[in-house]
Write a structure and sequence with these properties.
single chain, alpha+beta, 6-stranded antiparallel beta sheet, 23% helix, globular
């Protein structure tokens, strides 16, 4: 693998010095004659000749596992198959139970870890044969022209999204697309009057049995469509390239998009996108009844009520063509000083297809390593800062990072010898494009917490988020209902929510009617045109499930203290203390605690590293309280029993909003 990356880097340096075709043929070595056979074969074929040129000119940097390594892997594949058969091809639970299928798959990967770490790669330029390329080109043109939805696509889109035999680096080049073509070419995308989305759903439904592995056996490589079908389980990336092979074989322009690291959760993600009439349509790679939602939930504005808030710093698209820019094109930068993401030139930035991008210009405040020419903007995940965009360092230390996602915390960094070096203070790029610095300015305060992970905790709390939906709020006169003030129409999310109250009347007492006898809430607040009403009292008894979760916690102005219990009368009465004309009611959700037991340490980011505020032991209350905290900094609460590459997410404190998870 190192040799391939090294050649990749060399290719980036010389690409601007020689013609692309001649360069490719030179790099092909003894295989040059095979590539020239393809050019001669199509020399009088118009677009097919242009297509052959596109494939060969962009072949530098394309590689896959060689045949020898594939033969070595067969023993692992056979063992995987035996485990599958012993479990009836059914994993245990949503993500594979530790004591069943999932454990055996993980054990299999561990037993063969040495083999899996020694796979060798082969450059396409030096191994792809002429008859293979000719077969791929001919079938691609045939499928393209038969496809009623794609036949009018531009030739550029055809070359990028239909033609390429290689859908992603690392895969084995085989005849999978011919197999798919013969399976489905007489059924899909050939009749006028249909709809491409419905046909795509129908086609992918035929493969709904190919499911996510639950991150079991992640080190076992899935290198062929045939292997994925044999396993029936894989990661998002596996299903993405599988879909790409499948759909492109039938002439559908298809690609794989990815977020290198989420802006507000750990890890990365890949998904598929179809290019129809010049527009991109993103969809979930695995089967999902709401599969076409990504343009909606990845717009850096909305919140998904199942998965919570998604924030994307950048979105890139894997390409077959080469896109050489930035540090990889700069001959004065060593490859050890370039993040792996930017050594890959087979990608392009498509962030603007998902959200409104914003250019970030700032002045670096930390000393630069010797000969540093570029800086990077990084986001935090799994205990580390991950570069997601590059910028050229100008005079005075100024640098501009193009096309960034908003509502995200970033840290400017340098990159030296394979690691990040802070180049300034973290900041939050707000939704309006402004930048809020996150550094210790001397302000101290109290921080109360009951979770560690922020948005990733949303699915655990969906039950509690949904309980307030449909609650009715009524003003009381003389102890009796007078007028309806509000019906809460939506479920809650992992943040404070507020709804307007439309009334001309003033009330001292307000009643909340529940949908049933269960109440779960973190905080309830009442507002007038002058602001939040202080000292609201709860008049109704709640039979709380915990002595630390009583009704008095509903209006104590502390989000980390909560109320969860049974209300026999199915309503709660509140005393506002005086007559008020309400303008809004605010709710903060109940959150299942992650701090029931164990030791936890609070950190804040101080200039260039995490500094400890102090350590606390959970006492069963469900929340922890830290005093004398630098509340203008970026903060992180760590489970002391975990290492640094773990699940915790950073947070900031905002006036009037308390904790805001990033």
């Amino acid at each position: 693998m190192k040799k391939i990356v090294g050649l990749f880097f060399v290719f980036g340096l010389v690409s601007c010095q020689h013609g692309a075709m001649e360069q490719a043929l030179e790099l092909a070595g003894d295989n040059r004659k095979e590539l020239e056979k393809v050019l001669v074969h199509y020399q009088d074929s118009g677009l097919k000749y242009d297509a052959a040129r596109f494939l060969i000119e962009n072949m530098p940097g394309s590689y896959g596992v060689d045949s020898v390594s594939l033969e070595k892997l067969e023993q692992v594949y056979q063992a995987y198959d035996e485990i599958n058969r012993s479990f009836g091809y059914r994993r245990d639970g949503d993500w594979g139970d530790w004591n069943g299928w999932g454990k055996q798959i993980d054990d299999l990967a561990q037993r063969h870890s040495r083999l899996l770490g020694t796979l060798s790669m082969a450059m396409d330029l030096r191994h792809v044969q002429s008859d293979y390329l000719i077969q791929e080109i001919d079938r691609s043109f045939q499928a393209w022209q038969r496809n009623v939805y794609a036949k009018n696509a531009s030739f550029d889109d055809f070359c990028e999204y239909v033609l390429p035999y290689r859908r992603m680096n690392g895969l084995v080049t085989d005849h999978a697309r011919d197999t798919f073509y013969h399976r489905h070419s007489d059924k899909y995308y050939i009749k006028e009057g249909g709809h491409w989305l419905e046909e795509t759903d129908s086609l992918l439904y035929e493969y709904q049995h190919l499911m996510h592995s639950g991150f079991r056996g992640t080190r076992i490589p899935v290198l062929r469509a045939e292997t994925f079908e044999r396993f029936r389980y894989g990661l998002c990336m596996h299903r993405c390239w599988y879909n790409s092979v499948l759909l492109s074989s039938l002439g559908m322009p298809v690609a794989v998009d990815f977020v290198p690291t989420w802006g507000n959760r750990n890890n990365s993600h890949t998904w598929n996108v179809l290019m129809i009439n010049g527009r991109s349509y993103a969809f979930e790679a695995f089967w999902d009844n709401d599969r076409w939602k990504y343009k909606r939930i990845y717009n850096n504005r909305d919140i998904d009520h199942l998965w919570g808030r998604f924030r994307l710093p950048k979105v890139y698209r894997y390409t077959y063509s080469n896109h050489i820019e930035g540090p990889v094109a700069d001959g004065k930068v060593s490859k050890e000083d370039i993040p792996l993401l930017f050594l890959n030139v087979k990608k392009k930035d498509v962030s603007a297809e998902y959200f409104e991008p914003h250019d970030v210009t700032l002045v670096l405040t930390e000393p630069a390593p010797e000969d540093a020419r570029y800086a990077y903007l990084a986001v935090f995940g799994s205990g580390q800062w991950h570069p997601v965009q590059w910028g050229r360092i100008e005079k005075g230390g100024s640098v501009t990072f193009r096309g960034m996602g908003k509502d995200i915390v970033y840290l400017p960094v340098y990159y030296k010898n394979g690691g990040t070096v802070p180049a300034g203070s973290p900041f939050k790029l707000e939704s309006d494009g402004s930048m809020t610095p996150l550094r210790d300015d001397g302000t101290r305060g109290c921080v109360r917490l009951r979770i560690l992970r922020g948005t990733p905790a949303c699915r655990v709390n969906n039950f509690y988020f949904n309980l307030p939906r449909g609650t009715r709020w009524v003003g009381l006169k003389g102890g009796r209902p007078d007028k309806e003030l509000l019906v809460w129409k939506d479920s809650l999310t992992l943040k404070y929510s507020e709804a307007d109250v439309m009334t001309e009347s003033s009330y001292r007492y307000v009643r909340m009617y529940l949908r049933d006898d269960t109440l779960s809430m973190g905080e309830i607040s009442f507002h007038t045109s002058e602001g939040k009403i202080p000292s609201v009292k709860v008049l109704t008894k709640v039979n709380a499930f915990s002595p630390y979760e009583g009704a008095d916690k509903l209006t104590d102005s502390i989000e980390a203290t909560v109320c969860y219990g049974i209300v026999p009368g199915k309503y709660i009465d509140f005393d506002l203390g005086a007559e008020y004309k309400l303008t809004a009611i605010g709710l903060y959700p109940y959150l299942k605690t992650e701090l029931q037991e164990g030791d936890f340490e609070l950190y804040y980011w101080d200039d260039t590293r995490w500094q400890s505020v102090g350590r606390k032991t959970a006492t069963g209350k469900g929340f922890l309280e830290f005093e004398d905290v630098p509340t203008k900094s970026l903060m992180l609460l760590k489970d002391c029993s975990k290492g640094w590459n773990s699940i915790e997410r950073p947070f900031i404190c905002k006036e009037g909003e308390n904790v805001c998870w990033e």
